[in-house]
Sequence to fold (120 residues):
Amino acid sequence: MASILVHITHGLEAPTRAALGFLVAKAALDEGHQVTLFLAGDAVQLLRDAVLDNLIGLGTGKLREHYDALVAGGAKFYVSGMSAKSRGLLEAELAGKPAEFAMPNVLVRLSLEHDRMFTY
Fold:
């Protein structure tokens, strides 16, 4: 079993790419790998309930389905604190979600701790 880090920087402006990141993370989880996602830039908005419920990528499926499978499988989520602040994502919007705010040094640490890293 490998540890996989998926770094997603695209959000509503690129729904297919955003959903693809979640789909690849889900595929890795389905294969038995440990999965961590780090959302930065416009991707921080992907954890808003309205986005989770409505974003569908072209050929990459529904974001909510991928997210729910990742949560059920124990994936960890980190959200760039600086990106969240600049996009108005509040801590209350993450309540009940397995996600925590993190600074860029956490992304660097995670990239060195994981066996592979994919970026979308």
Observations:
- The helical segments are 15-30, 49-54, 63-72, 81-86, 104-113.
- The chain has a mean pLDDT of 97.
